[in-house]
Amino acid sequence: MTTKGSAGAGFITIGDGVYLSVHQRASVSAPNGITNTTIVPAISPDVIIIFGWMGAQLRHLYNYTREYAKLFPSATRILVRCHPSFFWSSQKSKHTRLFPVVEALEALGCIQYNTLTKETAPLQYDQPRILTHVFSNGGSLQLVTLNQVLSKRVPQVNAISFTSVIIFDSCPAVGTFRTLGLAFTLSIRSRLLRISALTFVYTLYILTRLRYLLFGTKILMEQLRESLFNPQILPWTNSRTPRLYLYSRKDELVPWQQVQNHSEVSRSKGLNVRTELFENSAHVAHMRAEPDRYWSSVMKIWNDACVPVESE
């Protein structure tokens, strides 16, 4: 794993849009505005992986990493940004972008190798505790891509005793013609560039729809939605791994009904699902609207994940 300088807020750059912040020795404190002492963690995660939403600026993502640093000061944080180009990049390019995350996980002991064969060994050692926080469809796509890269390097493991949580913030959803345009142009201020981007996105959308009608090939968002039903979406997860969906009725980019449908279908498939439906918060803005409720939900599902589960 190579480093490429400081990225601010305690992070170093280890890849294109990939940042690492090693743990600090400090006392646990609640995030800003939270006074509920019941959210104090029973056990801290060793690693927190945060997949940002498409086009998210670092200063916005740091709002979450700072709060995680307060809750879990001993945890190492891996932060991954999602550039809009990630959606139409080749599979090889996607894998290359996520490879620094794999290298970081290896360096942190989340992936171990047989020293004689140089092959990945079953995870039977002191297994790390991992919390994964996914924002919007951009973060979801990166999560699925990371799994594709890891699946080639890591064998299936017995995840029953592996403490892990996945949090889905404002995702997933296939979206609509209108919401896809909004998602790809929201951060573009220039009217001319916005029109150009909309033309590109809508053309691509129409072409993928035609491809589906002619050849039955599903569009990327539908493939993404189905991929997230996989119990082992990461090598250390299974059907018992708690999943938390955070979403809002006022989200203009990701229809809340689609997120709720995904959570319900996931539950029907035997996955361990929790939901938190907000009434008035915008897309990826639930934490800003109701910080107490937001972080309490995060802490509750993490503490629940720390309760030992007996093997069947």
TrEMBL record:
Subcellular location(s) per record: Nucleus outer membrane
Pfam families: DUF829
Domain of life: Eukaryota
Membrane topology qualifier: Single-pass membrane protein
Gene Ontology cellular component list: nuclear outer membrane
Record bears the keyword Chaperone: no
UniProt keyword list: Membrane, Nucleus, Transmembrane, Transmembrane helix
Keyword Transmembrane recorded: yes
Residues spanning the signal sequence: none
Homology family: Belongs to the TMEM53 family.
Protein name stated in the entry: Uncharacterized protein
